[in-house]
Amino acid sequence: MTPVAWTAIGVVVGVFVLLASGRVAPYLAILSGEAVLVVSGVVSPRAALAGFSNEGTVTIAALFVVAAGLNETGILTAAMHPLLGRPRRRITAQMRLVLPVSVASAFLNNTPIVAILLPLVSDWSRRIRLAASRLLLPLSYAAILGGMCTLIGTSTNLIVHGLMIESGRAGLGFFDISRVGVPCALIGVAYIAIFGKHLLPERRHALRQLEDPREYTLEMIVENGGALAGRTITQAGLRHLPGAYLMEIHRHGHVMPAVGPDEVLEPEDQLIFVGVIDSVVDLQRLPGLRPATTQLFKLDAPRAERWFVEAVVSRSCPLAGRTIRDGRFRNRYNAVVIGVARNGERIAGRIGDIALQPGDVLLLESLPNFVEQYRNSSDFYLVSRIGDRAPLRRDRGWTALGILAAMVGLAATGVLSMLQASVAAAAAMLVTRACSEEAARRRVDWQLLLAIAGAFGLGNALMETGAARELAGALLGGAGDHPAMALFLVFGITMVLSALITNNATAVVVFPVAVSVAARLGVSDMPFIMAVLIGASSSFATPLGYQTNLMVYGPGGYRMRDYVRFGLPLSLLLWAFCTWWIPRVWPF
User: Fold this and answer.
1) Which residue has the higher pLDDT, 471 or 279?
2) Residues 472 and 364 in one domain
3) Does residue 434 belong to any structural domain of this protein?
4) How far apart are the C-alpha atoms of 201 and 224, rounded to whole Å?
């Protein structure tokens, strides 16, 4: 092996050490490794930067915009809410997520599925009081496992299919892979169910009430014909809200305090909630509820152009001492009061009947210029926008869903490539205003894109220097004349290389080596080709092993050791199973 090949291997190992330490952000560790390779001349700048123009990287960036449109309109939450529900047990929550994702990933590319579901699952985990770290890695693994089941489940399957045709072999049928992929997926799902409790970390993101104890009073209405009408408080998921609770219900002019869990919600019930800011904003996004005030629909701009803002009432505010309704707050400030917080005091009654006092903190829905206009006004002590929170664009919900359906249909039928379909869908989300430009910029995970693009550069270094092929050839040399041992090594080497370079690149590197081994042994090459195909998608033990693993790294609060602890046993399990099962489906 040449010195440059050893250098490439050393740098990749160093990157893994940095990731394992948890002291450096993944994108910094990966880009630092790339910098060393470029400066030392081990890899050309073109190869090092190839990941930034790679179709996979650009596709993921576009899918973030598509996901932003689905999230901003609330259509995905409305569609998935009945399916995910409000499970009380960890295993139930994981199975409600893992089973449909693994099935969907068999027929849709797994990367967009994870990109689209990532924000939804993060919000869902908070609502059901289950750490996101218990759900996001299973989400990634389920998508990978489902992708093994059909020819179009993942791009790696299509690449191996193309390599077979190029080498003069018959290609794979749509369900040929299923004979191995489906058992692998079932094993993976069972593994998640059994060991998800003990091997997955529990890292909770603290709710804002820990740093800010303000509790807002919020009023919402049960929509007629909506998802919550006719359900009990418990069935509607309003019994154990994170950081909030249902204080009372106003129904036909009567007040129902201390509402029981079996109380059935009726259309147009007015629900009074008390909770911290994160929970109050989340309630605005819950399917089946709408803001109680009709003033929202009388503002001068559509909801797509509004923001949530906090404002503190000053002593000189002309509305101090007057109710929100009598003071005509909307007419005066072109903003609508959504919630009121008062020095830890719980305010009973409807929002419009609350008499404002100096020091009250108002949660407003307003135009973006409200902050600049009233920041220095004597009416308010303090005015600030609430992070990146914005009202849902419900009027664009079906538009966003139609764009998603068109993207999936065009990509699945081969009319457009996944890149073309995703870029067109992202553009459509922006043009139709299902997603604002600011929301699109905010939702794109730039650090993740840098990490993915950098990972391509590391893989190219191992390929350009010949290190990947040398490692594969040297290790396969120990197989001797035993086909079963050779198959065992082919699968293992493919799995290990997939953790170092991309799964697609691994398939390209190992495919000719595996076919050569079969020819040398005088046996059928189909078992070895399947070992390459499944092995390339079986690297669960590192965040770099698959794009979806890297996508959930930050949102799940994971560390390198979490992947090793939870993913390595699954990789080994599939390695052992496939070595035994593949020759029974495709004999030597």
Assistant:
1) 279
2) no
3) no
4) 41
The Cα–Cα gap between 10 and 86 comes to: 47
Q: Is the pTM above the cut of 0.70? A: no
453/376 same-domain check: no
Give whole-number Cα distances, 366 to 221, 292, 303, 337, 383, in Å.
20, 16, 9, 9, 12
Q: Tell me which amino acid residue 409 is.
A: G
Side-chain-side CA neighbours of residue 22 (13 Å): 9
Query: Nearest 10 degrees: CA dihedral of 85, 86, 89, 92?
Result: 0
Q: Is residue 27 part of a domain?
A: yes
Exposed e or buried b per residue across 340-362, where buried means at least 16 C-beta atoms within 10 angstroms of its C-beta: bbbeeeebebbbbebebbeebbb
Claim to verify: residue 338 and residue 462 sit in the same structural domain: no
Let me know whether 330 and 347 are in one domain: yes
Cα–Cα dist 170/546, whole Å: 28
- Give the residue carrying structure tokens 């195909």: 533
The average pLDDT across 330-357 equals 79
How far is it, in rounded angstroms, from Cα 262 to Cα 335?
36
> CA 543 to CA 108: how far, in whole Å?
22
Instruction: Count up the domains in the chain and report the number.
Output: 2
Give the residue from 336, 351, 385 where a domain finishes: 385
Q: Residues 250-285: pLDDT tens digits?
A: 888 788 876 788 888 888 888 888 777 667 777 777
**Residues near 331 by beta carbon (within 8 Å), at least 6 away in sequence:** none
CA atoms within 13 Å, Cβ hemisphere of 49:
5
Q: At what angle do helices 178-199 and 526-536 cross, to 10 degrees?
A: 30
Q: Are residues 311 and 268 in the same domain?
A: yes
Looking at the fold, whether 250 and 370 belong to one and the same domain comes out as yes
Q: Tell me how far the alpha carbon of residue 14 is from its chain's centroid.
A: 28
pLDDT tens column, 140-164: 999 999 988 887 677 777 777 877 8
Distance CA(106)–CA(112), nearest Å, equals 12
Query: Do residue 73 and residue 96 come from a single domain?
Result: yes
| 157 lies in some domain | yes
In a domain, 481, yes or no: yes
Domain that holds residue 349: 209-385
Chain segment 289-316, per-residue pLDDT in tens: 877 766 555 555 555 566 778 888 888 8
**Domain match, 195 and 279 both:** no
- Percentage of residues in the chain with pLDDT exceeding 70? 86
Residue that is last in its domain, among 350, 385, 420? 385
Contacts of 113 (CB under 8 A, 6+ apart): 101, 104, 105, 143
